[in-house]
Amino acid sequence: TESLFGQVEAFAGDPILSLNDSFKADPRDRKVNLSIGVYTDEHGRIPVLGSVRAAYERIGFAERPYLPMEGHALYRDGVQKLVFGASHPALSDKRIATIQTIGGTGAVGIAADFLAKHTPGRTVLVSDPTWENHHGLFQRAGFKTATYPYWDRASRSVDFDGMVKALDAAEAGSIVVLQPVCHNPTGVDLDEAQQAAVTDLLVAKGHIVVFDMAYQGFGTSLEADAAFVRRYAARASCLVANSFSKNFSLYGERCGGLSVVCRDRDEAERVLGQLKLAVRRSYSSPPMTGGLLVGTVLGNDDLRAQWTREVETMRNRMDAMRKLLAEEIRKLSNEVDIGFLLNQRGMFSFTGLTEQQVTALRERDGVYLVGSGRMCVAGLNEANVPTVAKSFVDVSQG
Ligand code: PLP
């Protein structure tokens, strides 16, 4: 008899996640994993933050009722203050609708579902390149996606002119996804003047901005990294997805938030209702343990201060590894460019290596980068930097 699912196509898998599987299967001792976007400490381990452990001990395990569709109140309050700053005018006006989401992915997904219902049929523009799931999540919601230029290969920095031209040429009222800090995969961000110029343009065109902030605190500081979002939100309505996966080192707990900045309080209440409906139709309500962990840390002055220092420790380690790699490369060669390593920020560095060079690094030296040339600097440590530097120089010099 014919099988019901005989025609189902195989899923190619996520290229980054399958690379991680190949890494695990690689028998070589000196292999180095710089592919997956996870922060690991100097021993290659995903840290358990002291602030989070303290929150966990405080919470213990008690009854597990459903959380409301919008999530835990303490958590939502924490998201608003962290993303917008406690004294932001939109917060005091009570015109931000915030929900707890299933990670940053869930936040972008609910944003896409919400926009598909309330502002349908618009084009969605994402940066070229970007986190691939931006295309997938908006397409799943029924949108067509297109790109705006972002990366300039020659200068290994932002193609600002290209970006501005494309956003200006797009139909008024398009949906524009922006990563405000620590851009994945390039590691290059707009500077303050560029942020201001883009803000003017986006507001003038009436574009709908979806900020996707997955790395708050990994650039300069928790506060400074949110500056673009905060200034934009003081000018115009926008949506802000944020993730706690990296800055809380809580990948598997799926903690994120979605905030919609509205014109006034009444609009925000109605928008919150629609976000709750979108959640109800999707997964009904968010999970409790992650909600309690993050809510407890953000809602307690001492724990939040401790967490802020722990984020700084992670950021400083990544900055130190960038510098160390640049120095080691310089020791081996004066020809190979290292400026990009120091200019880029956050967890990723776009190396400019070609797919063939990335393959050579992996096959010859066991150094794993993503095919696009993206390197996760959090995978570097003092022990493996010399290996990586040597491979990088060898492959760059052909
Ligand atoms: N958005 C961007 C730009 C990311 O880089 C990531 C994670 O890699 C996410 C969203 C997803 O975050 P989460 O793991 O919290 O779903």
From TrEMBL:
One of its GO terms (molecular function) is pyridoxal phosphate binding. Residues 31-391 form the Aminotransferase class I/classII large domain. It holds the Pfam family Aminotran_1_2. GO terms for cellular component: cytosol. GO terms for biological process: L-phenylalanine biosynthetic process from chorismate via phenylpyruvate. Its cofactor is pyridoxal 5'-phosphate. Keywords: Aminotransferase, Coiled coil, Pyridoxal phosphate, Transferase. It comes from the Bacteria. Residues 304-335 form a coiled coil. Signal peptide: none annotated. Homodimer. Belongs to the class-I pyridoxal-phosphate-dependent aminotransferase family. This is 8-amino-7-oxononanoate synthase.
